[in-house]
Amino acid sequence: MLSDILSKEECAKCRICCCFDDTDLWEAPVMTDELAKELEDTQFEYLENGKRILKMPKAMIGGEELYCCNLLDKNKGCVLGDKKPFECSIWPLRVMQLDGKRVIALSPVCPVLQTRAVKDIANVAKQLSKRIFEEADKNPDIVKKYEAGYVIFVIEGVSQ
Q1: Strand 93-98 versus strand 58-61 pairing type
Q2: In terms of Cα–Cα distance, which of 87, 109, 103, 98 is closest to 2?
Q3: I need a labelling partner for 2 at 20 to 30 A (CA). Which of 44, 84, 95, 130 fits?
């Protein structure tokens, strides 16, 4: 979805989006009922807010203990391919809730997009906004609470 500004090769080298520490586990992608059924042999856990995520083992990576997605193949990337959770397909864009409105924001941790022009990222966010908000309508669990530091590109209902 973001191929205009982020290549699969760049993502494959980094994979920061597939690992979480204790403070950002809330960023883990929510599993829909459909995907959970398809992954019936996979274990899930539930966050405090009741959202279902994959059970992820902790591993030492770069001197840090991180939870890493067990669907990540070190050589091939995500084993789900096009079936991966919607949140994964739009990352580092996030749909978030801020002051009663949904927004599309950019995670500050993607090292590749930190090298891209803000104007280009904003254009992609705007192009994808209709689809992102439609998906959030179907699966409200993907909407995260807004966190400081995330740059907002689209506010739902505000003309661009």
Answers
A1: unpaired
A2: 87
A3: 44
What is the reported pTM? 0.88
* pLDDT mean across residues, the chain: 88
**Cα 138 to Cα 152: distance, rounded to the nearest angstrom:** 22
pLDDT of residue 1: 60
Cα–Cα distance for residue pair 25/19, rounded to 1 Å: 9
In whole angstroms, what is the distance from residue 106 CA to residue 104 CA?
7
- DSSP per-residue codes, 91-129: TTEEEEEETTEEEEEE-TT-TTGGGS-HHHHHHHHHHHH
Q: Please give the C-alpha separations between residue 81 and each of 21, 78, 102, 127, in angstroms, as whole numbers.
A: 24, 6, 27, 22
Question: 35-93: per-residue pLDDT in tens?
Answer: 888 887 778 888 877 888 888 888 888 888 999 888 887 777 788 888 889 999 999 99
In whole angstroms, what separates CA 148 from the centre of its chain?
16
18: which residues sit within 8 A by CB, 6+ positions away? 68, 69, 72, 78
